[in-house]
Amino acid sequence: MSDKEVDTIVTMVKAMFDSDVAEIFRYMYELDEEVVDEEIAKVLNMKLNDVRRALYRLSEQGLVSYRRIRDRTTGWYTYYWKVNKAQIPLIVKQRKKVTISKLKERLKFEEENEFYICLNCGSRYLFDEALENEFKCYRCGSSLVYYDNGAIVEALRKKIKALEEKLKKEEESKK
Q: For the segment 22-35, what is each residue's pLDDT rounded down to a tens digit?
């Protein structure tokens, strides 16, 4: 994979979790071999429990996997972790589909509702909420004005179209 593709995957991991988890994922991806959690904690200067928690979260999403070996003398298990590089394209594809679905839900919400906004504090209200409070802001008491959400609707449509086209191209290129 190119550096840009790795950056895209790491950005996705960061969006799913947080920057520490993304940092662990990047380290493991670039290492490209099995690694124990203690080494990750040492190299990245993180707490071992935080690393373990992050690894389990990544594992739940199928991004990493592990094998465990039991020490015969102590009875303790050692976990060897690795990135599931073969699974990543499928996971990315699934995340894109989830994102498209959520964007479509948001688009429907924006298209089906009328909004009012407080010019003082920027709070946005549905028509029913504004009517219920006599077109006064709940937070600061200022008057509410009609809010044209056409720009939001258009931005959502463009984003959905772009993601759908990108997904379609990726599917066609794999045929």
A: 999 999 999 999 99
